[in-house]
Amino acid sequence: MSAQPYEQACASTRQVLENVQAEQMQAGTPCASWNVAELINHVVGAQHFFLAGMQGQPPAGGDTNWAEGDYLAAFDEASAQVREAFSAEGALEQNYQLPFGEMPGFAVMGLASTDTFQHGWDLAKATGQSTDLNSELAGQLLAQSRQSIQDSFRGPEGAPFGAEQICSDGACNADQLAAFLGREV
């Protein structure tokens, strides 16, 4: 197993980040409690969160306002470190303690890939970009999410995922993933 899904998720989200305009920072997003700037902070901060977990350290990166600086460079640096951690010999087979429980490295990578990709979709939707992102990866993440996300993970504000939403027939894989994860497409 390789870190390729994570690398692809980062490449997709990076392309969206490149096209976010300064005047869009206060715009709302599909993540109801975050505007574009706050979502960028989450996207970059999440890379630090996953890296800290892979290194056996407490969560990091959550208090920094990445959106006020060169968030693209910050994302590149943090995601490169996470990619290196996932690519280390035996990293995907090892167990890691995250704040919500112990997980094998391959599951942490799946979570990081889905989180990074989905929030790239959220940013694309919020900033008027195409949401038809990396169809093959989106299809893989959708299949994995359908297997791993239980109904107990869904709920109102505070739950990791909202209720699955309706998605039109023929919607792209990324839109289908978004709907499965609780976004209105």
Keyphrases for this structure?
4% strand, two-stranded antiparallel ribbon, 185 residues, Four Helix Bundle (Hemerythrin (Met), subunit A), single chain
> Helical proportion?
40-55%
**What profile does the largest beta sheet have?**
2 strands, antiparallel
DSSP helix count?
A: 6
What topology, given as strand order, has the largest sheet? 1-2
Q: What would the average pLDDT be, to the nearest integer?
A: 93
CATH topology of the domain at 4-129: Four Helix Bundle (Hemerythrin (Met), subunit A)
- Taking pLDDT < 50 over at least 5 consecutive residues as the criterion, the unreliable ranges are none
Pattern of helices and strands: HHHEEHHH
Any idea what the radius of gyration is?
15 Å
Q: Given this structure, which CATH class of the domain at 4-129 is correct?
A: Mainly Alpha
User: In terms of structural class, how would the helical and strand content be classed?
Assistant: mainly alpha
Euclidean distance between termini CA atoms: 32 Å
User: Strand fraction band?
Assistant: under 5%
Say how many strands there are.
Answer: 2
CATH fourth-tier homologous superfamily of the domain at 4-129: dinb family like domain
Per CATH, which architecture of the domain at 4-129? Up-down Bundle
Give the overall silhouette.
globular
